[in-house]
Amino acid sequence: MATTEDKHRSTDALISHASSAAQPFNETSSLAGAPTGAQSANTESTRTGSAAFTAVNSLQQDLINTMTDLHQRGWCDGTGGNFSVVANRDPLTLLMAPSGVDKGRVTADALIEVNADGNVTKGNGRASAETLMHLQIVERCQCGAVLHTHSANATVLSKQALHKGCIELEGWEMLKGLRGITTHETTIRVPVVDNNQDLEILCKTAKPLLSEAPYGLLVAGHGLYAWGATLKEARRHVEILEFLLNVHWKQQLLGVR
Ligand SMILES: [Zn+2]
User: Which of 70, 117, 124, 249 is deepest in the core (most CB within 10 A)?
Assistant: First the structure.
């Protein structure tokens, strides 16, 4: 099985850099904000006793904070969007909000745990059908968190670009917020797949595109899936991709090259 590092290397190789000296994304020189703490909670949940209890609660709080913040950005209005973080790698366990809840008001006791088959193993509530896509991305990309938004930018631009199969983003300083990118002289292609209410069909369509996707995939007329090695990185990636989609829209409106 490919390691996380291998997967990132694979993805990086498909991002076109003007510079051949691309280095792994460096938190200290990046666009990312200050560390939020509990960054390694994903792996800490395997500890035993009170340490595990603390780590899981920290992970729960990090996920809740992420959902609340993204909701405030207007990226998951209504009960839209879906957000998950890997609580345990073996056996695979995702921590996420149940289907149909307001992501701006989720409390820790409302979170559920889901296994590799998409079944709820802890907590009350039903797992969203979109859990299948989260599981596929986690398994294919060996990432630690998947953040799925329903922003207006992702919804409209994906529909516009469906016939091309991707949205090309290039020349923006903020591209450097994506892991592995060190210069604005870079082009990324975010794949776009057709929407489908049958998640098995949607997953099958997306599957061959994931290894080349720059930590993001668009579903036409629906939204964005973004991921990262940790919840913190996934959050940075979703913010960067949403920003890039926003400027792409404005670029088209103004006819800026
Ligand atoms: Zn959705």
Answer: 70
